[in-house]
Amino acid sequence: MSLAEMLREAVDNGEFELYYQPKINLKDGMVVGAEALLRWHSRDGMVPPDRFIPIAEQTGLILPIGEWVLLQACEQAHIWRQEYPEFHMGVNLSPAQFDLDYLPRLVADILKEAQLPAEALELEITEGMIIEDIDNTVQILRSLRDLGVEISIDDFGTGYSSLSYLTRLPLDILKIDRSFMFEVPDSRDSTNVVLSILALARSLNLKVTAEGVETEDHVTLLHDHRCTYIQGYFCSRPLPVAEFEEFMRHRQ
Ligand code: G
Ligand code: G
Ligand code: NA
Ligand code: MN
């Protein structure tokens, strides 16, 4: 059986699980929420997302999988908000989902079904998804943001697009790609890229999430330059539900 064929049955067989990686507010050290990250326990074992998400994209299976992810993440956020009322959930969108003309409708329906207020949801898109047709992207983002959800640009700094789009798009958060953090503070260039993104975000009134935060040095630098949120192994790797709840109990 090919990976694509196995993937086709994976949703119905309940082989997917979401892991959750905490996001921390640097100002007060509190957990503000999590990013949902998809895991596939296939019958041949765990398949990493880097291997199956491209196949899911090519086959169109990312649409049903993506819907499952969105609903699952929103329902989990609803549960966690009973105990942590400010809890936010970040969900990755794939290019195919972003191209759906009914995406805003779908997101609205899922929020309703999960009984989750829109402001508790952050949709993470990548630079590649927004550069093809800026006018169309502005429309899509407007209708999503009209619902009340937040929009972040994931892997920021790795795309090839012009910075001018940043002033035109309705956005909330830039997520600094983890590849830059890995070279901080050893590489001056990467350190300067991180500081430039922080300055850029401030001038555009955007929040910043630094990804791949692994060391105390990272935290100090980001704190000194008023980064908004951090995410990375320094705080926690992505965790299954029970472990995430354990993490929250010890943290808050
Ligand atoms: O969790 P991990 O670092 O292994 O994820 C690898 C890649 O898979 C990342 O680029 C991440 O954005 C992507 N990914 C993880 N979960 C999802 C998901 O639910 N939907 C989409 N489209 N991509 C995801
Ligand atoms: O592309 P995206 O930003 O969605 O990818 C998120 C992925 O990055 C997660 O699946 C997670 O496994 C990985 N990740 C998160 N924090 C760290 C970190 O501190 N170091 C490394 N190496 N990977 C991380
Ligand atoms: Na992401
Ligand atoms: Mn990223």
Automatic annotation (TrEMBL):
It comes from the Bacteria. Residues 1-252 form the EAL domain. This is Diguanylate cyclase/phosphodiesterase with PAS/PAC sensor(S).
